[in-house]
């Protein structure tokens, strides 16, 4: 009769246990103090009001974010703006064009360097996510955008005939992908942004709107940002001379935030084909913070009138760079963003 193998003796002390774990699994054990609050690095979204609402001066590297909302609200624009801000700091970004509809001209208009932006455009969602995982594991990706979750067609569905039913396949794909991508992104300090669409629930109870792809993304996300704009006529921006609609006011609502208080709101003017009107945003914030006085239709700064009418005032800030920079710096200080922006540039 064969003798039973003796079980390895359990470590007698905490230190020997830690040493055994490190030997077997690597540097997986430590203390919470190793994950200091100040060590969380962020990238600006390009919008001062959204950076302030997120509570960290932007979106965090190594974390997962979901950006969702109705069509043409500005979801992809937010992703493009983050890529632009990252590229200005010499960071590397990848864009997964699952919708096969990305417009290079629009990216370029938003300030994105097309020569430095890696793109993935596979047909099946499984292939897109597998290719993305391979790139992230190199440790050289800082920003990764998937546009969109709804367009990540599971391979079984991609290979089947139109009309066949595949209930729950996308949810299972996202659940499996995030179980692998989230820890890898954390290790490599890669920010993952998933652009998502909204759908109407079949049930009539509660909120009638939901996002596609199941609950995995909601669970793994550090932040969930609802984006709206353009649906209501009151949010549209019309040129006062031509009366043509040239943009809309994009509204952000932070539905989830693990790094600061959630349920905060932000707004920024979005001009079609151009991107965020940052001068207009600074003008609005400066007025709200009391830096600018408004008497009738006149805008006054440091006791002197500088423009009549909102449209002329924001155009004045485009022309007078010195005035714009002064106002922007004051707004940054009053919003408490200085500390975070300094960390981003250090």
Task: Report on the architecture of this protein.
The protein has 346 residues and is an alpha/beta fold. It folds into 2 domains: 39-270, P-loop containing nucleotide triphosphate hydrolases (Rossmann fold); 277-346, RecA protein, C-terminal domain (Rec A Protein, domain 2, 2-Layer Sandwich), CATH 3.30.250.10. It is built from 12 helices and 16 strands. The protein has helices at residues 14-25, 48-54, 75-88, 104-109, 125-136, 155-158, 169-188, 216-220, 278-288, 310-319, 321-335, 338-345, and strands at residues 42-43, 59-60, 64-69, 93-97, 117-120, 143-147, 191-200, 209-211, 223-228, 236-238, 245-257, 265-271, 275-276, 293-295, 298-301, 304-308. Strands 3, 4, 5, 6, 7, 8, 9, 10, 11, 12 and 13 form an 11-stranded mixed β-sheet that branches. Strands 14-15-16 form a 3-stranded antiparallel β-sheet. Helix 9 (278-288) packs across helix 11. The longest helix has 20 residues, at 169-188. It starts with 13 loop residues before the first helix and ends with a helix. The relative contact order is 0.14. The mean pLDDT is 92.
